[in-house]
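Supplementary Methods. Inverse-folding protocol.

Structures were first reduced to a discrete structure-token string of length 306. This string, shown here, constituted the complete conditioning input.
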């Protein structure tokens, strides 16, 4: 993946020139030499504080965040805060104008989770994007979560909000399993034909949070808060390479060693793989029984009733 290859670049390496590193990693040399003007210290500080406020109170929109910043002594207007939030890819979860707007012409799929009891792995997956701070800048993180077990199926990190960093994460998750329903917000990444076609070709039903449904994605918002307080805010990542390493270690801890009270003090991996394994064994037994009776066509009904 391009993000991982970019993270391997060492601009100050005395042994390998940028040109050689680009050739070895199959990257465009010109893209490595181009460096956009770095953000100012003030811009970084404001973005980091907005991230902290939003993490604590995800229902805050630009108006409230602006007022909070002013109460803390910052001279800032709402238009500036809106611009920063737009670049960060965030918006309050309360109903109202959405900073992650869908692109014109993109299809919006119906919300499928109303009244649904989520009771097994791979029944519902969710996807979302969040802001990850660095000492001198920021990155964007996309993660795919199994809602029943809280298991993190796949994730990707990049320096921009461009579409390409989302698709590899989606493809890796689909290599692991196929969910019945995939839920997202109506942001342009998730209404893009690149994203929706990928899911439809895999036979996945697509669900999108509806306007005015402020709490549709609350499980993912809770995970972002956990991630930031248990990992991101405790470590000052100096660069993307450190951030990728730290997040990779945390996701391994979160999936395989962090117990959850809501999961009866099991880890997400234990719930995801043990439950999925048990269900697979159940399916095998049912198939065998029905095949013996010549009634294999009723398998779907039997699984539904189970």
């Amino acid at each position: 993946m391009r993000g991982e290859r970019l993270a391997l670049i060492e601009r100050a390496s005395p042994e390998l020139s940028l040109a050689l590193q680009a050739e070895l990693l199959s990257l465009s040399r010109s893209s490595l030499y181009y460096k956009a003007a770095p953000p100012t210290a003030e811009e970084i500080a404001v973005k980091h504080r907005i991230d902290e406020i939003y993490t604590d109170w995800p229902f805050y929109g630009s108006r409230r965040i602006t007022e909070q910043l002013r109460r803390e002594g910052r001279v800032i207007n709402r238009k500036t805060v809106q611009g920063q939030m737009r670049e960060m890819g965030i918006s309050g979860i309360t109903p109202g104008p959405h900073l992650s707007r869908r692109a014109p012409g993109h299809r919006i799929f119906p919300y499928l989770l109303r009244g649904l009891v989520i009771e097994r792995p791979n029944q519902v997956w969710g996807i979302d994007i969040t802001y990850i701070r660095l000492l001198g800048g920021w990155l964007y993180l996309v993660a795919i979560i199994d809602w029943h077990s809280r298991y993190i199926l796949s994730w990707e990190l990049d320096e921009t909000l461009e579409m390409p960093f989302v698709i590899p994460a989606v493809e890796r998750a689909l290599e692991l399993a196929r969910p019945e329903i995939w839920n997202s917000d109506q942001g342009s990444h998730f209404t893009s034909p690149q994203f929706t076609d990928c899911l439809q070709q895999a036979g996945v039903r697509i669900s999108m949070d509806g306007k005015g449904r402020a709490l549709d994605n609350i499980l993912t918002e809770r995970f972002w808060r956990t991630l930031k307080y248990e990992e991101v805010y405790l470590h000052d990542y100096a660069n993307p390479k450190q951030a990728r390493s730290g997040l990779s270690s945390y996701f391994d801890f979160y999936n395989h060693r962090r117990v959850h009270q809501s999961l009866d003090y099991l880890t997400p991996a234990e719930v995801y793989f043990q439950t999925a394994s048990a269900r697979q064994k159940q399916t095998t037994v049912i198939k065998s029984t029905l095949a013996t009776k010549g009634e294999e066509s009723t398998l779907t009904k039997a699984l539904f009733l189970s």
